[in-house]
Amino acid sequence: MVGRKQFDVDEAVERAMTVFWQQGYAETSLDALCAATGLGRSSLYGTFGSKDELFRRALDRYGARYGDRFEAALAAHPDDPADAVEAFLGVTVERITEPTVPTGCLIAQSAIEVDTLSGASAARVRELLDRQRSRVRAALGEPRGVPDRVLDDVAAFVVAANQSLAVMSRVGSPEPELRAIVALTAGAVASSLG
């Protein structure tokens, strides 16, 4: 039919997400996106408007896919913040050691490249990191005697550890080393919350 898209937009975003994840925003060419999605430039532009907009759609897909897993892990331990953090970081280790997806993390890689991103894309990366921090902060609860500032700092620390796991996996750190980082982080959370 005339004017009707003859391809699956969600599948195109999925494939573009993988290319951005593997190569990073700056190194991902339109030719690479066209090859991965099977779309011509005109279809790519007609559907997504720009590489930048397609990138934000890929970030949103990535955030939604793994955000649900993070939520479930954190919710599984409502009375033990250290266990919740360990489960949260465990989701990351499972993802980054999964052989069917690229190494590392699209959000971590995008944060590293933030100076090459448009203002809108840089803001989206920040939003995704802030969402992680908010999830973790909520899971920490309100332990008696622990000031809000400490809880905020602990949540930021956990997000930093989460992102560092992705970076470490990208350079080939073995799973036992990643799991040791998870255990040490959970221990630090337990000590901080006393």
From TrEMBL:
SUPFAM superfamilies in UniProt: Homeodomain-like, Tetracyclin repressor-like, C-terminal domain
| Keywords attached to this entry | DNA-binding, Transcription, Transcription regulation
Note the DNA-binding span(s) on this chain: 29-48
Query: Where would one find the signal peptide in this protein?
Result: none
Which InterPro entries does this one have?
Answer: Homeodomain-like_sf (IPR009057), HTH_TetR (IPR001647), Tet_transcr_reg_TetR-rel_C_sf (IPR036271), TetR_C (IPR011075)
Residues annotated as domain HTH tetR-type = 6-66
Whether Transport counts among this entry's keywords is no
Protein name, UniProt field: TetR/AcrR family transcriptional regulator
Q: What is the lineage of its organism?
A: Bacteria, Bacillati, Actinomycetota, Actinomycetes, Pseudonocardiales
